[in-house]
Amino acid sequence: TQGWIETNRLAGMLGIDPSHLNIQIYRCRKQIDDALSELQNPPHVIERRFGGLRFGYPGFQIIRGSTIEGALRI
Q1: What does the alpha-carbon distance between residue 5 and residue 74 come to, in Å, rounded to a whole number?
Q2: Helices marked H in 4-73
Q3: CB neighbour list of residue 59: distance below 8 Å, 6 or more residues apart
Q4: How far is it, in rounded angstroms, from Cα 50 to Cα 27?
Q5: 16-36: string of b/e by CB count within 10 Å (b at 16+)?
Q6: Quick one: residue 54, left, alpha or beta (phi over 0 = left, psi -120 to 50 = alpha)?
Q7: Distance between CA atoms of 28 and 55, rounded to whole angstroms?
Q8: Which residues does 56 contact at the CB level (< 8 Å), separation at least 6?
Q9: Cβ atoms 56, 44 nearer than 8 A
């Protein structure tokens, strides 16, 4: 259960409807897969399960412009 958030709750936090969130997640996953296409086993950065999702990669940074807004390092 660690790290999981309900899709509806995240959509509410972002101020968008859940179907729009699903589209954005699909696009994000596609961009990540394309960027890491040369890796043999690319990481599943966003994990999905019924009604929820989480960051599945142990080390990541969220950068906006030149500012790191969030980071998790192992």
Answers
A1: 21
A2: 7-14, 18-35
A3: 72, 73, 74
A4: 19
A5: eeeeebeeeeeeeeeebeeee
A6: beta
A7: 12
A8: 43, 44, 45, 46, 47
A9: yes
- Count, residues in the chain: 74
pTM of the model: 0.66
* Residue with tokens 């998790």, as numbered in its chain: 72
Closest CA relative to residue 8, chosen from 49, 52, 56, 55: 52
Per-residue pLDDT of the chain (74 residues; tens, 9 = 90+): 677 889 999 999 999 999 999 999 899 888 888 887 787 776 777 888 898 998 776 666 778 888 888 776 65
Looking at this protein, which amino acid is placed at residue 1?
T
